[in-house]
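Ticket opened by: R.M.
Priority: normal
Category: complex prediction / small molecule

The reporter submitted a protein together with zinc ion and asked that the result be attached to this ticket for the collaborator who will pick it up next week. Submitted input follows.
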Amino acid sequence: MSLFANIVLLAIESSCDETAAAVCVGGVIKAHTVATQDIHKKYGGVVPEWASRLHIQALLPVVTEVLAQAQVSLKDVDYIAYTEEPGLMGCLLVGKNFARALSVALNKPALPVNHIYAHALANFIDNPGLTFPFLCLSVSGGHTQILHGLSPHTFHIIGETLDDAAGEAFDKIAYMLGLPYPGGALIDKYAEQGDPNTFVLPVPKVGGYDYSFSGLKTAVRYLIEGRRQKEADFIAKHLYDICASLRRHIVLILLTPFFKAAQNLGIRRVCLAGGVAANRLLRQKFSETATALGYASFIPDKAYCTDNAAMIAMSAYLCLNVGKSRAN
Ligand code: KG4
Ligand code: ZN
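Result attached by the on-call engineer:
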């Protein structure tokens, strides 16, 4: 039995616009809660200063709630894990200071966690049998990367976006379509009712296993502007078809280099991670392609794809188990 079989971890995530906390006991998530900051919808994107101020307000209630849900009291907590990087500087500082203050008050170690690795490690939450190495397609609002996971703290970047992240492309195009921020999930929802063959979009010319999404944004802008000259209500009339065409296109762009890399690296296990991994078509095509190519495939529950603290807790737990967590 692992030395850490019964440890109680309290985890905090505050890297962007979600204030989240989780309790993990012996590697099992007992409770997790996320407070989303709706104020950013008004601005069409995250306003960093608002985000950090709202984390200050939300952290204590969120932590109190998660401890109550898990039926754990502060004195039972053995470690406090928090997101150290990457993210918005002010937001990270709020979470880090909160965690470190708790650490001093409780005399328990604080464990810094890498947010990007945590997205990938979220795959262990419902699949404790997953083993390293694996290849992970990590797609969110801030990053798009193909990661070769060798251990809980060792990931090699095999490919990444040269400009916008996939989630950023979804959100920026959603904004052009008049949808509220962040629009990725709404595009996914509307796409269910549209015909993905309606509009043809350009495939970016990028070498190796890298990505590019900025040209897609421009292509959609030209499409909308061109069609609006003849049809003023073009967006309203074709919203579902635009969403379906866009979604299928982004999924195709994401999967092609990923599975090429998997084949060239001789990988046996593939994982999906990040907020965009909540996308229905991406989940379906990822699993289908992996199965067709003979890989074992893993996708976190949707609640563990978008930003959450359960993934921070799981990362800290896995790092502790391999003796590599850096308590501070
Ligand atoms: O991982 P995440 O919660 O935050 C970052 O670390 O960036 O990812 C947020 C991104 C946003 O761009 C959001 O639009 C996108 O994930 N997203 C989706 C879906 N749900 C969230 N994109 C496409 N389809 C979805 N169902
Ligand atoms: Zn994230």
